[in-house]
Amino acid sequence: MTRPFDHSTVPAARVGVLLVNLGTPDAPEPGPVRRYLREFLSDRRVVEIPPLLWQPILRGIILTTRPRKSAHAYAQVWTDAGSPLAAITRAQADALQAAIGPAVTVAHAMRYGQPAIGPAIDTLVEAGCRRILIAPLYPQYCAATTATVVDAVGAHLARLRWQPALRTLPPYHDDPAYIGALAASVTAGLATLDFVPDVLLASFHGMPERTLRLGDPYHCQCLKSARLLSEALGRPVEVAFQSRFGRAKWLEPATDTMLERLGKEGRKIAILAPGFSADCLETLEELAIRGKEQFEAAGGRDFAYIPCLNDSAAGMALLETLTRRELAGWVQE
User: Disulfide engineering: 237 pairs with which of 28, 54, 230, 300, CB 3.0-4.6 Å?
Assistant: First the structure.
């Protein structure tokens, strides 16, 4: 069939994968941090307070005082490649592209900040991707993480005339591949230490306790991940929740409270953050730096932070396994 002379060029149909993580400011400075926090904390999935009540608080004291403090924290973990989260997520996308081959186009985006989800989808579509797997890099499902990625994708697609077909990577908190990757990472991390921890602490990002009562499965999935990891390692894994914010009651026990108690007891600890697919401010500054300082101030001596899966061999084997599974029927092996 001969195309009309004025017919637009349509790229050959391809399959795309979009890895999505939380986000990061563009620089460890108050201005970029303020822009990032404004976007992040204005998401009604993240802060479930009516905007008429919340926005004056956010634009008043929070965005006036918090950016400078957060910028100082970011500066402690910033690298020559930029934000650790941005650099690692980019490396994960590059490694997945190399592993999965040219039949699939892999891109990455941040829910808040850059690269944004909308332009990333546009780039995939312009490359001919008529089928796209959206892969939120959150092992445990939470409305404030996984769901808000889906919200942003849907909002962007609502503006498109020709929408691609979509699949979404489901949470993988109890997937044997995830538990196996965690166990391998922890085992390797423990083997490098010059002491034997008597406490292995899994610190997950906290959420207000009311989210559990409202039916969010996050808390239960965190506990299941820790239980399965404990079984895989053959040793106990204790659970705590970090990053409390505001006056509301949050999931407990709190990581900072646990670290203070364990320090006073003179325990030897190794801490990991299995809810994060890539190291970021919450792991590198809040746990590895500030958490260690708090532990030692309470009298503790032996402390180790075990990195996230990142773009390690175990981490990338996991991402490849999850991606290939979800692409079944779209891509011929």
Answer: 230
Q: Locate 110 and state its tokens.
A: 């941040």
Residues 187 and 284 in one domain: yes
Quick one: 44 and 142 in the same domain?
yes
pLDDT digits (tens, 9 = 90+) for 282-309: 999 999 999 999 999 999 999 999 999 9
Residues 6+ apart with CB under 8 A from 117: 18, 20, 109, 110, 111, 149, 152, 153, 156
User: Which residue do the tokens 């008043």 mark?
Assistant: 60
Judge if 29 and 117 occupy the same domain.
yes
Q: Indicate the helix (H) or strand (E) that contains 84.
A: helix 84-100
What are the pLDDT digits (tens) for 223-269?
999 999 999 999 999 999 999 887 889 999 999 999 999 999 999 99
Task: Write out the two tokens for 325.
Answer: 């599974």
What pTM was computed for the model? 0.94
The residue among 132, 136, 128 whose CA lies nearest residue 157 is 132
Closest CA to 237 of 184, 199, 204: 199
Which range of residues forms the domain containing residue 223? 176-306
- The residues near 191 (Cβ < 8 Å, ≥ 6 apart) are none
